[in-house]
Amino acid sequence: MLNRFYGAFDTERRSGACDGDYRTPFQIDRDRVLHTPTFRRLQNKTQVFWSGEYDFYRTRLTHSLEVAQIGKSISYWLKSMPDGPLGDDFFIDPDLVEAICLSHDLGHPPFGHAGERTLNHLMRDHGGFEGNAQTLRLLTERIFSAKRSGMDPTRAFLDGVLKYKSLWTELGNQPEHHFIYDNQHTYLDWAMGGNDFPLELTPGKVRDKFKSIECQVMDWADDTAYSLNDLSDSVRAGFLNIEKIEAWAEKHGEPTGDETPLGDLMRAIRRKRVDPFVGKRIGKYIQSTRLETDVNFLSGSTNRYRYRLAIDESVKAESKLFKRLAFEVVFLSPQLKQLEHKGSRMLRQLWEVLGERYIAQGKIDGQDFQLLPADTAAEIAAAPDEATRARLVCDFLSGMTDGYAARTYKRLFSPDFGSIGDLVG
After folding, report:
1. Is the separation of the CB atoms in 110 and 46 below 8 Å?
2. Residue 221 phi/psi, 5° resolution?
3. Measured distance CA(93)–CA(72) in Å, rounded
4. Is-contact 11 5, C-beta < 8 A?
5. pLDDT, tens digit, 9 for 90 and up, residues 97-146
6. What are 201-227's pLDDT values in tens digits?
7. 290 DSSP β-pair partners
8. pLDDT exceeds cutoff 90 at 263
9. What is the pLDDT of residues 172-204, one digit of tens each?
């Protein structure tokens, strides 16, 4: 059935190619992402706890799958609302939302957000590093195509992963996060249909709020998964228990009685019913959404900007509460910070040796050690300048899984690790 929500502006690809496929353009976007090594590598990248340490805990891959399920469910929920603007031939495409949700963390490096901060620091003289910007780089320049021309995404899909729309240099002196790379302005311009941002959409937080409806759905699905599913892992791992919740709540003046979010969570922990608690809450978060109309400089060109996602304020407040709890009790715990430091140190030392050999194009102890795969080394050698070489080394490091980064570190720096068998076996 024809979906009038989208037009040629939304389904256009940068190449101008017409798919001519039995699948919709958005199904093709989703399928191209699913069948890339980049997507598969998410199974060994940190979500909260180091991937591979235990089989139970979520990785970037399982997190992305959960976000995709929640995002699709929000799409179905919004379509089902009897008083909403959507209907059988006018709806937010769940395949498009799924593609966006599956892709939203593709650019994240090993070792979680600590790895992201480390690479941004190491790239401070070469345009920075940001997970969302790296996702954009992968989709447009790196994955799916042997010619390094990206997967040729549709405009709606590319725009859907653009959580941030400010360039690195627009945010001042070496911003910490929430930017795209300066040379990605052409993709941003194309996603916006060649329209300049109005003066009131200043770079930074104001402009970041300007998202397509599918990006907003993905963002809320990500918040839902982050604020609820990460709690489940934290309880199972022993990082979050009743005593710690009560102490945190007392410190911050948060209520813990009956019919309060923290009270409900503690009751679920006592009854060993955390997963059912999380499942019920996910359903509540999905059904807290509705659509409102919006008028802006793109609302006349596409329905993707004609609507904004409204979320019940009490549910948003609960989500923020759970995220604060997880961040302050779990993410800031000495145990996790020690692991983050270890991951950061490994990335820094890998960067130093690869930088000396490939960015500065120098010798190591007077020798031309070949430390990278031949195709990667050849691409770096053909790069026109130091900034491009640095970006390619950063691509290599950010594409590593936790395990691959740790093994490479050990092979390079640990005397009792590695043998010729590791290389030919």
Report:
1. yes
2. -65, -40
3. 8
4. no
5. 999 999 999 999 999 889 999 999 999 999 999 999 999 999 999 987 66
6. 999 999 999 999 999 999 999 999 989
7. 310
8. yes
9. 888 999 999 999 999 999 999 999 999 999 999
Count of residues in the chain: 425
**Backbone Cα Rg of the chain:** 22
The secondary structure of the chain, three-state, reads: CCCCCCCHHHHCECCCCCCCCCCCHHHHHHHHHHCCHHHHHHHHCECCCCCCCCCCCCEHHHHHHHHHHHHHHHHHHHHHCCCCCCECCECCCHHHHHHHHHHCCCCCCCCHHHHHHHHHHHCCCCCCCCHHHHHHHHHHHHCCCCCCCCCCCEHHHHHHCCCCCCEHHHHCCCCCCCCECHHHHHHHHHHCCCCCCCCCCCCCHHHHCCCCHHHHHHHHHHHHHHHHHHHHHHHHCCCCCHHHHHHHHHHHCCCCCCCCHHHHHHHHHHCCCHHHHHHHHHHHHHCCEEEEECCCCCCCCCHHHCEEEEECHHHHHHHHHHHHHHHHHHHCCHHHHHHHHHHHHHHHHHHHHHHHHHHCCCCECCECCCCCCHHHHHHHHCCCCHHHHHHHHHHHHHCCCHHHHHHHHHHHHCCCCCCHHHHHC
- 167, two tokens: 């360039």
For tokens 């480390």, what's the residue?
118
Its sign, for the CA torsion 129, 132, 133, 136, is: positive
Average of per-residue pLDDT values in the chain: 92
Q: Which of 182, 210, 95 is nearest to 388 (CA)?
A: 182
- For 152, phi then psi, to 5°, come to 55, 60
Q: Cβ distance 147 to 292 under 8 Å?
A: no
**Residues β-bridged to residue 87:** 90
Burial class (CB in 10 A: 0-12, 13-18, 19+), 248: middle
Alpha carbon separation from 363 to 107, 114, 268, 292, 355 (Å, rounded): 30, 30, 59, 60, 11
Please check whether residue 65 is in contact with residue 138, taking contact to mean a CB–CB distance below 8 angstroms.
no
Angle (deg, nearest 10), helices 60-80 and 213-236: 130
Measure the CA–CA gap between 143 and 363, rounded to whole angstroms.
31
pLDDT tens for 22-80 read 999 999 999 999 999 999 999 988 776 655 555 567 889 999 999 999 999 999 999 99
Q: Is the dihedral of CA 249, 254, 259, 264 positive or negative?
A: negative
Is residue 225 within 8 Å of residue 63, measured between CB atoms? yes
